[in-house]
Amino acid sequence: xxxxxxxxxxxxxxxxxxxxxxLQITEIDLDPPGPGEVLVRMRAAGLCHSDxxxxxxxxxxxxxxxxxxxxxxxxxxxxxxAKDLRAGDHVVAVFVPCCRRCEPCTTGRxxxxxxxxxxxxxxxxxxGSRRLHRGEEGVYHHLGVSAFADYATMAxxxxxxxxxxxxxxxxxxxxxxxxxxxxxxxNTVQPAPGSSLAVVGLGGVGLAAxxxxxxxxxxxxxxxxxxxxxxxxxxALGATHTVDAADGNAVEQIRDLTxxxxxxxxxxxxxxxxxxxxxxxxxxxxxxxxxxxxxPQHLFSIPQVGIVAEERTIKGSYLGSCDPARDIPRYxxxxxxxxxxxxxxxxxxxxxxxxxxxxxxxxxxRTIRQIVRL
Length: 374
Prior knowledge:
This protein is of the alpha/beta class. The protein is built from twelve helices and 18 strands. The longest helix is centred in the middle third of the chain and has 22 residues, at 168-189.
């Protein structure tokens, strides 16, 4: 069948993207689902920095590639072995397909699925196959999803079924922003009661982390960013304090507020500078967590002695250390109970033809979560 999709042919084109047009909205061929695969009619997809990092070349991927990894839609057709889903079911796409058989999957860490990692790195579905092409030219899948399209074929393992009481706009963000942000708090960090926590970087993932932290009622919850508007929103969402990251004494402010630094600092900006700030505001014996994905060549350097003498911990968090099949329904229920007001993170609704301008807004930090309605 034919589908419209946002296809990237060249990384690193200059901004503004509304002029250089790195994403071409074009019609491509989509093969039917193979064994264990599902054809999905995409209904909504979120613009994320992980997409932007491919467009600007920070995260090199094989090209041409149909971009987009955070989305929701409804099942149209299933291949053999995916019969637990039926036409009309609503699903959320997840950017790590979890095979449930490899060592990380069987030991409770499906976010680190090894076959899923290999498939994502090579631009295929979990089976190693590609279902996208334009004539004889193959087109690669983005993280097994390729959400900026009218239709997508995905591995069953890339999908979590949700009930139809949730709008597609809302459902889409649970596959990345919510899993990554809320999960980094509830799974990776698991802060002790009465502790202090700071979130550095207030995009969709960072603000989701803030909402996740709020549910655990830390004594101090600090939001740190360069944007005054995002800091104001963070305050409205439950931050006890806000600090402008551009302020020359931001570290001192936070250390003074917390009498030596926070117990937990989460870096959500995908920037080495942001990680350096997060590390500096973490107290002795504390934990610094990073969920951002900067350019692989960017290095983070610290004195080794501090890790030992101060018993410091630096942790990575990928997909929020989540099990998507367990955590997406759990977080949706928290949203319904009013504990995770994820809807307040949705900035604009745009069309697929406006996607390049949308990535300009994202790159400039002028938005939180834009949703492409498909």
